[in-house]
Design a protein that fits this description.
single chain; 318 residues; alpha/beta; Rossmann fold; seven-stranded parallel sheet; two-stranded parallel ribbon; 11 helices; 53% helix; globular; binds NADP nicotinamide-adenine-dinucleotide phosphate; oxidoreductase activity; Hydroxysteroid (20-beta) dehydrogenase 2; lipid metabolism; lipid biosynthesis
C-alpha cells in the first residue's frame, strides 16, 4: 500500500514543483520577445553598471544590437573607452561613459547623478558585482577582511539601491522604465563559503521583488535575474558547456524574458539546474556540517588550479 502510494505521490510532488516554478516564471519563455523591451523602444539612454566585461558588457552589446544607446559605467577608464568605441562602430549607437568605483560607497552617487543629468534613462541594468574572494572560503579566511567586507557590500548592494534611486524618479514621471538587477543562484539558498556574496545577492533579490511590487502599477518593471555559472572573469573564464553559458548568449536569452517575468534564472539551462539543485541539494543539506566540511576539502583541492586561472585572467586583463 505504502509502495503503491509512493510513485503517484512523488510524481505529484514533482509535477507540483514544476508547475510552481513555471508559474513563478523560473522556466523561461525563450525567444518570444526579441526586438527590445517595450520600455526601451521610445527612450534615449540605457545604463549598464560593470559594463566593461562579462555579463554587463554582454547586456550593453545586446541592448545596442537591439538599437539602443548606452551609458557604460565601470571602474577602468581605458576599458570603458575601448568598449564604447567598439559598440559605436559595431552597432552604430551612441555611447556615454562614466568612470567610478562602486566599492567606494555613498560618496560616488552625486557625481554619477550629475553625469546622468538631462539624460532620459529607459533601462538600468544593475549588473556590477564582486565576490568576497576568487575562491570558496570561510568568512574570516579572506585577506584583509576589514576592507573587503565593506567593498563587497558597497559594490553588490549599495550600487543597486543608489542607482535605482537615481533613475526611478525620471521613469516614474514618464510612467515607463525597466530596471534589471543581477542577483545570483548563490542567493537561492544560503551558500556557506560564499557567505558575504550569497547574503548580498539575496538582498538584491528581495530588493528587486519589493521594488517591482511597489512600482509595477506605475509602469516600471523591475526584473531580478538569478544566473547560475556564466563564463566570465569572475568565474575564471571557465569553459562554456551545456551548463555554463557564455556571457553573450546569457544576456541574449535573459533579455528575451523581459516583459514576461520579473524573476528569472535568465536562461533555460540555468532554470533547469536550479530546479534540479533545489530537489537534490536542498538548503538543509547544503547547510549541514557534513556538506560544509566536504566543501572545504573540495575548495582546498581546487585552490591551486583556481589561483592559476586567476593569474591567467589577470595577465590577460593587463
Ligand atoms: N559569472 C557568473 O557565473 C555569475 C553568476 C551569478 C551572478 N553573477 C553576477 O553577475 C554580475 C556580473 O558578473 P560577471 O561574472 O560578469 O563579472 P566580471 O566578469 O568580473 O565583470 C564585472 C564588471 O564589473 C566591473 N566592476 C567590478 N568591480 C567594480 C567596481 N568596484 N566599480 C566599478 N566597476 C566594477 C568590472 O570592471 P573591470 O573590467 O574593470 O574589472 C566588469 O566590467 C555580478 O553582479 C555577479 O555577481 C555572475
Amino acid at each position: 500500500m505504502a509502495n503503491g502510494l509512493f510513485v503517484p505521490l512523488s510524481t505529484g510532488f514533482l509535477l507540483a514543483h514544476l508547475v510552481e516554478h513555471a508559474l513563478t516564471s523560473r522556466i523561461l519563455l525563450i525567444s518570444w520577445w526579441t526586438t527590445g523591451s517595450p520600455a526601451g523602444r521610445q527612450v534615449m539612454q540605457q545604463v549598464v553598471t560593470g559594463a566593461t566585461s562579462g555579463i554587463g558588457r554582454a547586456y550593453a552589446e545586446e541592448l545596442a544590437k537591439r538599437g539602443l544607446d548606452i551609458v557604460l559605467i565601470s571602474r577602468s577608464e581605458d576599458k570603458l573607452r575601448s568598449v564604447a568605441k567598439e559598440i559605436e562602430s559595431r552597432y552604430k549607437r551612441q555611447t556615454h561613459v562614466i568612470q567610478t568605483d562602486f566599492t567606494e560607497g555613498h560618496s560616488i552617487y552625486s557625481a554619477i547623478a550629475k553625469q546622468l543629468e538631462g539624460l532620459e534613462i529607459g533601462i538600468l541594468v544593475n549588473n556590477v558585482g564582486m565576490n568576497y574572494i576568487g575562491v570558496l572560503a570561510n568568512f574570516l579566511d579572506v585577506p584583509d577582511p576589514d576592507q573587503r567586507i565593506t567593498q563587497v557590500i558597497n559594490c553588490n548592494t549599495l550600487s543597486v539601491t543608489q542607482m535605482s534611486r537615481l533613475v526611478l524618479p525620471g521613469m516614474l514621471e514618464r510612467e515607463k522604465g525597466l530596471i534589471i538587477n543581477i542577483s545570483s543562484e548563490a542567493a537561492s539558498q544560503p551558500q556557506p563559503m560564499l557567505s558575504v556574496y550569497s547574503a548580498t545577492k539575496i538582498f538584491v533579490t528581495y530588493f528587486s521583488r519589493c521594488l517591482h511590487a511597489e512600482y509595477s502599477s506605475k509602469g516600471i518593471t523591475v526584473q531580478c535575474v538569478v544566473p547560475f555559472v556564466v563564463s566570465t572573469n569572475m568565474t575564471h573564464n571557465v569553459p562554456v558547456n551545456p551548463m555554463v553559458k557564455s556571457a553573450a548568449s546569457f544576456a541574449r536569452e535573459a533579455l528575451n524574458t523581459v516583459g514576461y517575468t520579473s524573476y528569472t534564472s535568465g536562461c533555460l539551462t540555468h532554470a533547469l539546474q536550479h530546479f534540479a539543485l533545489s530537489i537534490f541539494f536542498p538548503g538543509w543539506l547544503r547547510l549541514s556540517s557534513f556538506c560544509v566540511q566536504r566543501m572545504a576539502t573540495f575548495a582546498q583541492s581546487i585552490e591551486p588550479h583556481l589561483k592559476e586561472r586567476m593569474a591567467e585572467t589577470k595577465n590577460k586583463q593587463d
